[in-house]
Amino acid sequence: MNDSFRHWRNRVSAVFVLLMMASSIAAQAPSPPSIRLRVHPAAAPTPALKYKLLPELEDKTPGNAALLYLRAFSPEWYSHGRPPGFANKVLDLLETPLVDLPKKDVNWLTSYQPLKQLDKAARKETCDWEMTARVREEGVNMMFPELQSFRELASLLALRNRLYLADDNIDQTVYTLQTGFSLGRDIGQAPTLVNSLVGAAISHVMVGQVEELLKHRKCPNLYWALTYLPNPLIDFRNGYEGERLMLFARIPELRGIETEQLSPEKEEKLLDQLSNFVSGTDARNGRREDHVTLTVLALKIYPEAKKVLIEEGRKAEEVEAMPVVQVVAIHSLRRFKEYQDDLYKWLGLPFSEARAGLEQADKRLIIAQQKKDMLPLFMLIPPAAKVFNAHARLARKIAALRCLEAIRMHAKDNNGKLPAKLDDIGLVPVPLDPMTGKSFDYHVKDQIITLYAPPPAQERPTASNSFTYEMTIEK
Amino acid sequence: MGPEQLGQLINAHAAALVLYARQWCAIPEDIVQEAFLKLVTQTTPPTSPVPWLYCVVRNGSISASRTARRRQHYESLAAAEAQTWFEPTESSGLDAETAGAALQNLPIQQREIIVAHLWGGLTFEQIGELIGSSASTAHRWYTAGLSSLRERLGVACPTNPPLGS
Amino acid sequence: MSDQSAPGELTALEAGLAALAPCSPGIDRDYLFYHAGRTAARGGRGVWPYTTALMAVLALGLGWIAVHRPQPLPSLDRPEARIVYVPVEKHPSPPSAANPAHRRPTSRIPDLGEADSAQELASGIHVREQVLLMGVDALPSSQAPSSPEKRPPLDPLLGMPATILDEPGRNILKGLQELGS
Predict the structure, then answer these.
(1) Nearest Cα to B144, choosing from B107, B117, B116, B91?
(2) C contact test, residue of A21, A292, A343 with most C CBs within 10 A
(3) Residue C28 and residue C88 in contact, taking contact as beta carbons nearer than 8 Å
């Protein structure tokens, strides 16, 4: 056997060995760490809705919450100043074990005016950011100068919550959670998807604080408090509907494009707006792109656009008489609306039913973008699946916590005995996993409950698509 | 920089640059796109565009990851959705998902050097400059990383008698 | 260097790893070519200005006629004009079901241009796009608020100390009443 054959055989064997051993690695793929909770059994409170996680109408006064939310940023009050490392310090304090929390250092939060303004805002009957008019006018150019600071205030609320927990003050804890969940909801229901995401992020911070509360020995059973939350917590459709306004905010001349007979002036305006759009120029900055890029693109698209319009029912002589740019614009707008609705139609379904459809619609959009047979209006269709998944994750966490509270209730009712399976819990309905439409994965071993929310099929577990609660119920 | 050169750079290096950026951040495509954009808008293009791109991508990725890292724990909105690193393999070679998982388990220093060398094609001298270290240190980490991978993947030492003999 | 100094037993592993293809990058080539052309056109270098100029001449000539006159182009079939494009690769194949995390290429609106400042890059459209793709951590960092010590003194305006605004409203009112008396 010569050397080269031996060398070749060794290489093939090595690769073969790699292949043979490789499958074992799949089971060892890293999973995110479990969330560990040490809790006590607890029955449902009396009355059942003694604790609520959002203020109710009886707790509210007339007025517009948005004014007070923004008042939280009054320069004279907003004095925590953000010295270097402040954000990391807050995050450190949020991770510090409650027993080690340096209460003297954070006591100022209980009287901190910005947070008090949030408390008041959360208890106003309405919240009108008056954003719709701005979305119509500014579209994708809208700025969000306040949102990052709201996230910061949410972290401070969470820290205040921990302070109350450290002081065994459950009522103030629940009060703070109400403020935080209101803040998340009010921000999240403004008509932009950026708001929607920030609202979900803030709500997640509060869900984290619910987990903290669960660990407290005096924590009441929160099953009904969690169940009573709106589902979904944030109506994210407002954000999607706001996104629909952005196209005409950016290219107003598209509004009447289907039916208008374009005068030379309107045609010029349309060319200007489309040229600016394609080139990414904002005409309000006094800049104006030449029409070259648009013209090249329009000429490429025109033959197909004309054909399709006629196939879709427009009279051939009408289409022939239209300026090229109008034909291309109508065709592109129709396709844009089709793709947009192809995504949006899934938003009305439960998460578990919508997920696959949304992903397929997103893929169709990617393919369509690559064909380049229309004006690039796609840029204004948001990544629908991403935002949807953010809200699905929130719903999933809330459902899982409801499960845990149902287990706590069962344990109290059965002298500490844990249910062998979730179906054994008869006191209250046990929620399904909203991502899968099935029960959460439930195991009990050595008195430790594991509640697992698995990743979607064909995905590896990550912190964003799966989680595990490990709960120990003290006797 | 001419269109042909730009096209060649994208064809040859974009995928590897995205893989490199994945070591730190959740949306590496944006970082790489920005890096290419910076490249094409340089009035004087760099003499060695490939190491230049790796440097820009590295800086951009680390910066992006710093912003994301502290928030993820609380908001559970990790930008990282499930990430697939390699195209699924049909040949009887290393399984793509397995290899990706094993790579992700390595310490970042080893991982980034392996990616930069094996897929990016950078020499150890270039990698040393990239990470602010020496070529020999870079090589040492590279070798250590591959040894870890060999253990994780259960690869037998090829000096052992091959199977079937 | 690896062939020379890496231990021999690692070579098969290196080969196995190197044979794996990183996922398709999703880079928007047209966007990059567009900017390469713009940059070079400003500098007048390389083939870009010629490409751009040729495109411009052809486009302006045909385009002016096509977009401004609704009648068919005289003596020319519909735009079979020789429009010169920068060579690009074939479109990548559609994402496979095995790669569900494939995301939409960032075919964003081209940047505002070389001379534009970082401020313009941080404009709303960029922020929106980054947040929707990367999550809320892509929001621009908050600026530190001005400290109370930096506010303009009230004294010249009202004859009252600047610190009156730190007081509850009733004290401010009292201060105003005393001012008037």
Answers:
(1) B107
(2) A292
(3) no
- The domains of chain B, with CATH numbers, are 1-79 (no CATH), 94-155 (1.10.10.10)
Write out the two tokens for B129.
């400059």
Cβ(A302)–Cβ(A290) under 8 Å?
Answer: no
CA dihedral (B72, B73, B77, B81) in degrees, to 10, reads: 80
Q: Which residue in A140, A378, A390 is closest to C128 by CB distance?
A: A140
CA separation for the pair A338, A332 (Å, rounded): 10
Q: What is the pLDDT of residue A174?
A: 97
For chain C, which residues make up each domain, given as ranges? Answer: 26-89
- Residues in chain C closer than 8 A to B27 (CB atoms): 103, 133-134
Residue A64 structure tokens: 């517009």
Mean pLDDT computed over A117-133: 96
Helices A237-250, A384-413: axis angle to 10 degrees equals 170
Paired strand residues for A469: A35, A451
Q: Could you tell me if B68 and C131 are in contact, meaning their C-beta atoms sit under 8 angstroms apart? A: no
Of the candidates C21, C27, C45, the one whose C-alpha atom is nearest the C-alpha of residue C88 is C27
**How sure is the predictor about A320, in pLDDT bands with cuts at 50, 70 and 90?**
very high
Mean pLDDT, residues C80-101 taken together: 40
Determine contact: B90 vs chain C, CB below 8 A.
no
Rounded to whole angstroms, the Cα distance separating A297 from C85 reads 11
The pLDDT of residue A22 is: 39
Among C12, C67, C101, select the one facing A298 at the smallest CB separation.
Answer: C67
pLDDT confidence of C103, banded at 50, 70, 90? very low
pTM, two decimal places:
0.65
Contacts (Cβ under 8 Å, ≥6 apart) of C4: none
Disruptive mutation site among A25, A155, A465 for chain B (greatest number of B CBs within 10 Å): A25
Burial class (CB in 10 A: 0-12, 13-18, 19+), C49: middle
The label of the residue with tokens 């920030």 reads A198
Percent of chain A predicted with pLDDT > 90: 61
Residues in chain C closer than 8 A to B99 (CB atoms): 16-17, 20
Question: Please, where are the H alpha helices in chain B?
Answer: 3-21, 28-40, 49-75, 96-104, 108-114, 124-131, 135-152
- Residue B160: CB atoms within 10 A of its CB come to 12
Check residues A369 and A99 and name the one with the higher pLDDT: A99
Alpha carbon distance C45, C67 (integer Å)? 31
Rounded CA separation A60/A300 (Å): 59
The one-character DSSP state at A160 is H
Other C-beta atoms closer than 10 Å to the C-beta of A469 total: 23
Cα three-residue angle B128-B134-B135, rounded to 5 degrees: 65
Q: How far is B133 from chain C (nearest CA, A)?
A: 16
Give the ipTM: 0.76
| Chains with at least 3 CB pairs less than 8 angstroms from chain A | B, C
Cβ–Cβ gap C25/B114 under 8 Å: no
List the A467-473 sheet strands across, edge first. Answer: A35-39, A467-473, A448-453, A441-445
Residue of B nearest to A465 (CA): B81
Query: Torsion angle of alpha carbons A138, A142, A146, A151, nearest 10°?
Result: 140
Strand partners, A450: A443, A470
pLDDT of amino acid C83:
39
Left, alpha or beta for A415 (phi > 0: left; psi -120 to 50: alpha)? left
Token readout for A69 is: 């939310």
pLDDT confidence of residue A229:
97
In whole numbers, what is the pLDDT of chain A averaged over residues? 87
Contacts of B123 (CB under 8 A, 6+ apart): B117, B135, C1
Angle (nearest 5°) at CA A385 between C122 and A430: 125
Q: What residues of chain A lie within 8 A of the CB of C151, using their CB?
A: 75-76
